[in-house]
């Protein structure tokens, strides 16, 4: 699919992680979108989607949290998310509204506007699927020589009610492959990182994370590249192996590949495993 067929302006829902603990993900994401001609218009006064715990404790509250964001979003352009957990919460609420008249009545009564069925929730992968990212690299392969393990985590797996939606596993390998990087075959790419259990049971999460990172090391990967800010955080803070791998956000490596990574020190100083020696060796910084 050609770039000009893509929406040039989207309503951007960054979510809590990308605005706080993963600010490097947010900054690189914005730069990358600008580079490929996508204008992000941040949703004003957005609120947490409830991905941390609300959906497990109070389903009505979790629905209302997403519904408020849907009510605030203007019509006529898609709502873009990059966090897999946020995407799941948004798409579940959107699906519930599409299928359930009582949910639409609750929405109207609570927010004073009817649910707009034309509003589309779009994950970042949907935005770039079919887009020739290598064209923005002017035919070069800036990631040549980089061997990585793609890590999707578990949140992009579709629950039963969303089973007809496209699964984008493999997209990172496809895009980064056109830019010269080589993905390893490994067993950890869809394993859960422990998500928010990292706070309540860090001991359990460390065991899981160590297994994921060790699998990446054994596969010959030089780094992990993640699709999720929460996963990136857990893979760094909960790993206590003697040898660890740099863990990069997908947006970071894309931005660097397009030659748009200025002032990257403010990104990489937030990484607990410094990726700069590897990236410098590959000529990316």
UniProtKB/TrEMBL annotation:
GO terms for molecular function: oxidoreductase activity. It comes from the Bacteria. Residues 10-90, 150-235 form the Cysteine-rich domain. Pfam families: CCG. The keyword Oxidoreductase applies. Keywords: Oxidoreductase. PANTHER family: COB--COM HETERODISULFIDE REDUCTASE SUBUNIT B 1. This is Heterodisulfide reductase subunit B. It comes from Desulfoluna spongiiphila.
């Amino acid at each position: 699919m050609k770039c000009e067929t893509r929406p040039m302006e989207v309503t951007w829902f960054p979510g809590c992680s990308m605005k706080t603990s993963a600010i490097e993900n947010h900054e690189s994401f914005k730069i990358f979108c600008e580079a490929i001609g996508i204008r992000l218009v941040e949703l004003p006064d957005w609120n947490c989607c409830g991905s941390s715990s609300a959906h497990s404790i109070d389903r009505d509250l979790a629905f209302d949290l997403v519904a408020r964001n849907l009510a605030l979003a203007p019509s006529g352009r898609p709502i873009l998310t990059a966090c897999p957990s946020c995407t799941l919460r948004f798409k579940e609420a959107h699906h519930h509204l599409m299928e359930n008249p009582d949910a639409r009545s609750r929405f109207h009564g609570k927010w004073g506007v009817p649910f707009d069925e034309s509003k589309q929730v779009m994950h970042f992968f949907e935005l770039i699927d079919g887009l020739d990212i290598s064209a923005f690299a002017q035919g070069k392969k800036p990631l040549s020589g980089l061997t990585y393990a793609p890590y999707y985590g578990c949140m992009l797996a579709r629950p039963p009610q969303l089973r007809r939606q496209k699964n984008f596993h493999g997209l990172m390998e496809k895009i980064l492959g056109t830019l010269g990087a080589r993905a390893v075959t490994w067993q950890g790419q869809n394993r859960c990182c422990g998500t928010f259990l990292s706070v309540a049971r860090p001991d359990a999460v460390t065991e899981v994370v160590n297994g994921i990172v060790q699998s990446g090391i054994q596969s010959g990967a030089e780094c992990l590249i993640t699709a999720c800010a929460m996963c990136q955080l857990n893979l760094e803070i909960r790993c206590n192996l003697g040898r660890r791998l740099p863990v990069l956000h997908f947006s970071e490596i894309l931005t660097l590949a397009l030659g748009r990574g200025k002032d990257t020190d403010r990104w990489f100083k937030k990484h607990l495993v410094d990726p700069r020696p590897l990236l410098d060796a590959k000529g990316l910084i």
